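ARCHIVE CARD
SHELF: 3
SLOT: left
DATA:
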Amino acid sequence: MLELVFQSIVPRLQQRRSTYFVHMSWLWKTDKGWKEYSKEDIEAIEDQFKKGKKRFDLNATYAIDFKNMIQVRKDDPTRQRNIKREGPAVEPRAQDEDPRPAKKGKQTKTEKVAEELRVNPKRLQRDFKITKDAEAKGVAPFTCELIDEDLYQWEIKLREFDPSSELYKEMSKYEKKHGIDHVTIRLYFPGDYPLEAPFVHIVSPKLVGGFVSVEPTTLTDDQQIFSGGMCASVLMQGWSAGIVPESLILQIRTLLHEGNPRIYNMNKIESWSENEARSGFQSAKQAHANDKSFE
């Protein structure tokens, strides 16, 4: 069954490395449908998005509002277009384009492996199968599904919390009010996974405190915006290509137990947006850049 899933979601990714490469895609909605931005604009938008920016000027005419996922005309803010992020996508190279990075000398073994992994989905296919197998055997305290059949985006529902933890108490109250017994998180895998860590997005309920990253405001020193990013050494300096998603998910679950986060508003069903999560994570990452405890 899983093999059929893989065949349906990544047929294009199984092309030869010398012919294809992976990238994210950004599109804006025209009157006739969705249209992709230029390659240069996509690179600029993706760069600002990963930095957790809420807004940036795309050019002299348009600005990108990540919070509302819209393109705004700068001289008339009422003129807006919806935007969306898709991918990773696969794009054919020009026939005369050398797919290999420019070399100053002999390519190292690490560089060769990195080059292969950046466009090879087989590792992620295997990791997804391992994770689903653990779920099917009933040995995993979570469920895992792809988001829109995208191998690079997973949605996880964490369950079976430690009765002695604050998280268990919070979720018990939340379940009584709303009938929801799980914490939803999402994993976004970069094109060069496993060399780079997946981004972890705590979606819902809105957990705050503990290892859930925060972004300080400019209002007062003690006020904070809790943003849904996961602040943990394993996702920063401590990442290793040998870490598999199943193990990472269990580590996240353990950190949520140990961090004793609370639910931001027990009376509402709310979730953190991906942009809020990325913004909080970048703030936390910068704050811990020189913190040796995160190495």
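SLOT: right
DATA:
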Amino acid sequence: MAAFDTADNENELRVINEFLEELRDTASQLQVLVGNMRSKSIGAAEGLATLKREASNLRSHAQGLSLPMIKLITHRFDEYVGELKEAGPSELEEIQVFVDKIEKLADGEQISEADAPAVVRALPAKRTADIDFGKIEKKNVEILLVVPEKAMSRIVERELAACGYRTSTIRDGFAAMETVVRTRPDMVIASMELGLLSGVDLGCALGSMPVTEGIPFALFTSYEWGNPKLKGLPPRASLIRKGPKFGDDLAESLSRFNIT
């Protein structure tokens, strides 16, 4: 058994080292790309398309590795550039923040678990395409959405962005638990259906762990309290119902948990 463990550890270390080398190369290329976009030596549309492609690749390559901070940062980078329709001077300044942080992590910068939430919050917030952020007071409030359906998550993101809240979206319930523990969001909003786990399962798990029990949790669902499907959901949780009651329920949940 020890021989197998050693081989597994050696293989994992090799894969991680290969990824870090790739990460350094990509970060250097992104530094050049951002500089070329600033100087307009490359077309804005072409540059943004390259940024989106590279961010998506980094995110997907990092997900299966034991590199928690790099997973978090590349996830946020992909979220940020994925929402952009254009990359002007202000967007390029914020993209630079991500690229600089990725480059430092690739070069070995260490971030403690205690510092991780603050580091993540210091990153630029993603921009919802149809929101004029110049007219919105941005708040240091982060809400994690655990919503598999892209169309539905965009609806919730837009409502929260219009209030100035930061959001990040996770599609998978298991990944959401790790993200909540590492980033300590101010609130979690989860869909009822999350695959193997349900939103009720996620709410119960977060409510039972001392490290996350104090984080407000709301379930995005079409069910009402008393429905058997909600059996086990902690009574402290809030319901945000789909349909015409969505806006009122969201506002009530934010107020109830003093998310301001």
